[in-house]
């Protein structure tokens, strides 16, 4: 039969709105590639996911009864979260996507499951299911043995290398013993059980994972198993600095994190008696991004390193190898998988990486808490790239001001954003809050209510006509009230270290685009700055005396 809509081998363009008749033609019945579910019985959804993963993929249609009639289902975040949980109950499922399909006035959720390219999926109780017609059948006996032997996955990190355990650095072996609390006896057995040597003998070769942790320079055995960092001072120019971190895997993560943090520096803001150092990227975010790159890269790609680029407006971390199944860009916050399970396990034991499933959460949450732009994740199937923006719509003085305010009590990230806009002189309403936060009326009302209850904003009017402004007791951020001479001095100071743009001035001063342009034009006319380029490519340098 032909592959159905939403199947990875089905039609390239799948319509998201169908009539009942069109839906019936597209999905006439259950079969090799289609299963209907009226609700979300999580165990049954998990069985279908496992079976489709082990066969040729398929589509689970939720909100459809056994006869193929659309009954409808919710498409809200909690409903989708239940589906992600059902998939997470399967061990090593294939990649998947979740689509919202509208049929007449009802929603159907299409869970499109891809065939696993390597290895196989299992239920949490150990069953191995495969799709046969409209049934999810368990494999047994000889049939099971044949299937497993044909699909067995050997992780590359467990591959022995041409270097014996005798070449391991004794200090690095001791470090592992101390990390895991092993006793002084049975070290070889422990290393073997941990996947670091191929056999529990003194003549055993190291595995790839063993080379990464037990050799002073793993690249001598594994090729480009290191991190390269390139610094670019100006857009369009060649890099002006390159440094390589090629020690054991854990040292690569720690040393590269420290180096990049020093390169980026911090925004220094002094408010009254307090000096605030605001890292341009929170250290946990950078460390997690590097740990993920080291742990999940493909070490089979021996001619490629992990490449880090430091630009004026971003840090990019690019590692060889695509995302491991079942992770995709769309579901990476809900799903997790390890290409190199031993490598990441040791990084976690050394507290250099977050627990399973927490890495992306930590990166996104830490950036949000610091009022910085969110990380951007991308993949071309052969590499994974993480972009950490060096910017925010909230200026450093505003971020420092928020830190001062939070001495009175913690403020949620969404509430902070509303408070910043109130400090800029904006009059907040439920509509304004919804637009700023991208939430519904109930959540907007709750945010405004929390700020009011904490005494940070004051309410004017009642119910539908209520507006909110910054409480009189709170002074606005100093960056918004700097005298013109102070603003000029601040911008000249920025230009002394590197070329500046309208955007970089806005980020450091809190000015809007027009005000920043007026200030830059004024300094240019006064002979203090020199303008280069035009339109979006315009930048400014300090005038030579």
Structure description:
Pfam families: HATPase_c_4 (PF13749), SLFN_AlbA_2 (PF04326). 37% of the residues lie in helices and 19% in strands. It is α+β, with helices and mostly antiparallel strands and 545 residues long. The chain folds into five domains: 17-151, Methyltransferase, Cobalt-precorrin-4 Transmethylase, Domain 2 (2-Layer Sandwich); 156-222, no CATH class; 227-389, Heat Shock Protein 90; 408-471, Arc Repressor Mutant, subunit A; 481-542, Winged helix-like DNA-binding domain superfamily/Winged helix DNA-binding domain (Arc Repressor Mutant, subunit A), CATH 1.10.10. The strands form seven sheets. It has a six-stranded mixed β-sheet with strand order 11-10-14-15-17-16, with helices on one face. α2 (42-54) links the parallel β2 (34-37) and β3. α15 (430-437) crosses α16. The longest helix is centred in the middle third of the chain and has 16 residues, at 249-264. It is globular.
CATH topology of the largest domain: Heat Shock Protein 90
Say how many strands there are. Answer: 21
CATH architecture classification name of the largest domain: 2-Layer Sandwich
The CATH class of the largest domain turns out to be: Alpha Beta
- Choose one word for the global shape: globular
β-strand percent reads: 15-25%
By secondary-structure content and strand pairing, the structural class works out as alpha+beta
Largest pleated sheet: 6 strands, mixed
Number of helices: 19
Report the helical percentage.
25-40%
**Could you tell me the mean pLDDT?**
88
Total domain count:
5
Low-confidence stretches: none
| Gyration radius, rounded | 28 Å
What is the distance, rounded to the nearest whole angstrom, between the alpha carbons of the first and last residues?
78 Å
Strand order of the largest sheet: 11-10-14-15-17-16
């Amino acid at each position: 039969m032909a592959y159905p809509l939403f199947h990875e081998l089905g039609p390239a363009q799948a319509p998201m709105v169908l009539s009942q008749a069109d839906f019936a033609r597209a999905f006439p019945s259950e079969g090799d590639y289609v299963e209907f579910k009226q609700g979300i019985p999580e165990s049954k959804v998990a069985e279908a996911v496992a079976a489709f993963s082990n066969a040729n993929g398929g589509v689970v249609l939720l909100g459809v009864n056994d006869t193929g009639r659309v009954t409808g289902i919710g498409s809200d975040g909690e409903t989708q979260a239940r589906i992600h949980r059902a998939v997470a109950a399967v061990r090593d499922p294939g990649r998947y996507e979740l689509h919202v399909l509208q049929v007449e006035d009802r929603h159907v959720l299409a869970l499109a499951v891809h065939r696993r390219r390597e290895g196989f999926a299992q239920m949490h109780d150990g069953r191995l299911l495969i799709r046969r017609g409209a049934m999810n059948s368990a494999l047994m006996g000889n049939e099971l043995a044949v299937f497993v032997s044909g699909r067995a996955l050997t992780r590359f990190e467990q591959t022995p290398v041409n270097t014996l355990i005798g070449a391991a650095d004794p200090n690095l072996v001791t470090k592992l013993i101390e990390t895991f609390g092993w006793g002084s006896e049975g070290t070889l057995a422990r290393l073997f059980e941990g996947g670091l040597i191929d056999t529990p003998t003194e003549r055993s070769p190291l595995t790839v994972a063993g080379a990464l942790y037990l050799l002073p320079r793993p690249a001598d055995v594994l090729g480009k198993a290191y991190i390269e960092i390139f610094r670019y001072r100006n857009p369009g120019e060649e890099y002006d600095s390159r440094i390589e971190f090629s020690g054991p895997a854990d040292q690569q993560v720690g040393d590269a994190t420290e180096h990049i943090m020093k390169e980026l520096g911090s925004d220094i803001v002094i408010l009254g008696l307090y000096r605030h150092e605001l890292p341009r990227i929170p250290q946990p975010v950078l460390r997690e991004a590097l740990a993920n790159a080291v742990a999940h890269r493909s070490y089979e790609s021996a001619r490629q390193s992990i490449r880090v680029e430091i630009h004026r407006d971003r840090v990019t971390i690019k590692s060889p190898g695509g995302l491991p199944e079942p992770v995709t860009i769309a579901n990476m916050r809900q799903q997790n998988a390890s290409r190199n399970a031993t490598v990441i396990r040791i990084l976690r034991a050394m507290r250099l990486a977050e627990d399973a499933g927490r890495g992306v959460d930590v990166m996104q949450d830490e950036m949000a808490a610091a009022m910085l732009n969110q990380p951007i994740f991308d993949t071309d199937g052969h590499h994974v790239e993480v972009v950490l923006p060096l910017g925010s719509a909230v200026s450093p003085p505003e971020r420092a001001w928020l830190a001062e305010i939070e001495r009175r009590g913690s403020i949620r990230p969404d509430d902070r954003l509303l408070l910043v806009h109130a400090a800029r002189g904006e009059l907040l309403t439920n509509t304004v809050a919804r637009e700023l936060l991208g939430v519904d009326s109930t959540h907007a009302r709750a945010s405004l209510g929390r700020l009011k209850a904490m005494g940070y904003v004051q309410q004017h009017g009642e119910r539908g006509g209520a507006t909110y402004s910054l409480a009189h007791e709170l002074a606005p951020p100093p960056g918004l009230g700097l005298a013109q001479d102070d603003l000029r001095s601040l911008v000249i100071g920025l230009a002394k270290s590197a070329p500046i743009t309208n955007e970089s001035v806005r980020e450091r001063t809190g000015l809007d685009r027009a005000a920043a342009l007026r200030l830059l034009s004024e300094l240019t006319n006064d002979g203090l700055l020199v303008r280069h380029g035009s339109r979006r490519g315009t930048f400014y340098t300090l005038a030579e005396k």
